[in-house]
Design a protein that fits this description.
Elements: H1 7-16, H2 22-34, E1 38-44, E2 50-53, E3 64-65, H3 69-77, E4 81-84, E5 90-99, E6 102-112, H4 118-138, H5 144-148, H6 156-164, E7 169-171, E8 175-182, E9 190-196, E10 200-208, H7 212-231, H8 236-251, E11 257-265, E12 270-276, E13 280-285, E14 288-291, E15 311-314, E16 320-324, H9 326-329, H10 340-350, H11 356-371, E17 380-387
Antiparallel strand pairs: 1-2, 1-6, 2-3, 4-5, 5-6, 7-8, 8-17, 9-10, 10-11, 11-12, 12-15, 13-14, 13-16, 16-17
Length: about 400
């Protein structure tokens, strides 16, 4: 790639490619521009354990670890990694594939030896970002990339829940979000959602009662009702009220959904909160970890026309917030020990230097270990947010 062949022209070529042909197009473009010998797109599986090559389905290439080796280092560290291979004629550059803070996978490019100059790596990083955007867009028209992420079949409930999510991360100047769900291939009632505007961020964590398809349907209605109210410009407490009415009208109080709603003012750090049920919220500030005490109000749909109230707290630059569903703080081991706040605090303390994505993954990993390994029997959702605050321009 050179000045006469800018990244913009590569973006145009990727945009015009058929949805299923993005990898083939990337191979052709990079062969022409940087002499790439091989180009591989690896996508993170739903459990964030492996990176799977996108090849002809239903088969896929051999996966590689998502947090070990050169590919895993690029994915976990979100920085390009140049691998010196046993073949002295080539090097491989591994580039994180990330869209607005949502980590999708890694693009691996095999180059002639000594071709991986800093300038080339920088341009390949921009190319990987452009490809990531096209992969997300292509997901509306082809199942290829969603299928390639799977190490095994999703349950129907899990299929519905993953399609309901906004992503697994989001980043802006003011904040960085990383989130995760387990059991990834059989999730039923847990969900997280967010929407960012010019001066605010609305974030929710929802835990639908029950398991499997019944929990998924309940949570889908709750999230849809919250989104409908939010998109109508309605305040946070009234969003909860309208969602409560929608669930009660459908289920008559027989089942309900616990929800934590947060609205961040991106300018001031002021946070409005509605605690409608069981998700818990923790804050890491400096060396201390505290649970943010919110007024516990009724879950959505438990009673008709419940009145919800907002509370206010403040976040400061450097704060980390972690929201967890009941499946995290309420899970017991095989011998009956509660995972609880103490174990959660230990994980949060140990992961303080890591990015939000890695913190969320570590909480889930600690939970699975506490449970005894294998799939969890209860859904678990973790959302980690690092607050940077807005940098205000100095007055002239």
């Amino acid at each position: 790639m050179n000045a006469s062949e800018p990244v913009a022209s590569a973006e145009s070529a990727l945009r015009s490619a058929p949805p299923h042909a993005l990898v083939a197009t990337a191979r052709r473009l990079l062969a022409e521009r940087v002499g790439a010998r091989e180009v591989t797109l690896l996508l993170a599986d739903y459990g964030l354990t492996v990176l799977q090559p996108v090849t002809h389905l239903p088969a896929t290439g051999e996966p590689v670890p998502a947090h070990d080796g050169p590919e895993g280092s690029a994915f976990a560290g979100q920085t390009p990694v140049v691998e010196v291979t046993p073949d002295p004629r080539t090097d491989v550059v591994h580039l994180p594939l990330t869209v607005r803070g949502d980590r999708l996978g890694v693009l691996s490019v095999r180059l002639p030896a000594d071709a991986a100059t800093p300038a080339t790596v920088l341009e390949l990083r921009d190319f990987a970002t452009a490809l990531g955007h096209e992969v997300v867009t292509a997901g509306r028209d082809t199942d290829l990339y969603l299928q390639a992420r799977r190490t095994r079949r999703l349950t129907l409930a899990a299929e519905m829940q993953w399609q309901l999510l906004p992503g697994r991360g989001c980043a802006r100047e003011e904040y960085v979000i990383g989130a995760h769900l387990e059991p990834a291939y059989a999730i039923g009632g847990d969900n997280f959602d967010w929407s960012t505007g010019a001066d605010d961020l609305v974030l929710t964590v929802t835990d639908g009662m029950g398991q499997g398809i019944d929990a998924s349907l309940l949570t889908s209605l709750a999230v849809g009702a919250l989104r409908n109210a939010r998109r109508a410009g309605i305040g946070l407490a009234d969003q909860a009220c309208l969602a409560d009415q929608a669930l009660f009208a459908q289920y008559g109080g027989k089942v309900y959904a616990s929800t934590l709603l947060l609205r961040f003012d991106l300018v001031t750090g002021r946070v409005q909160a509605v605690d409608a049920g069981s998700p818990q919220l923790f804050r890491v500030r400096g060396g201390s970890i505290e649970r943010i005490a919110l007024e516990a109000q009724l879950p959505l749909g438990m009673f008709e026309e419940t009145d919800y109230r907002e509370q206010i707290f403040q976040v400061e630059p450097g704060d980390r917030l972690i929201a967890v569903s009941t499946g995290v703080h309420g899970t017991r081991s095989a011998v009956g020990d509660l995972f609880g706040e103490r174990a959660l605090r230990q994980v949060l303390s140990a992961t303080r230097p890591t990015p939000p994505h890695e913190c969320a993954r570590a909480v889930v990993s600690g939970l699975v270990e506490h449970f005894g390994g294998g799939d969890l029997t209860a859904d678990a959702a973790v959302v980690c947010l690092d607050w940077n605050g807005r940098t205000l321009s100095a007055p002239e």
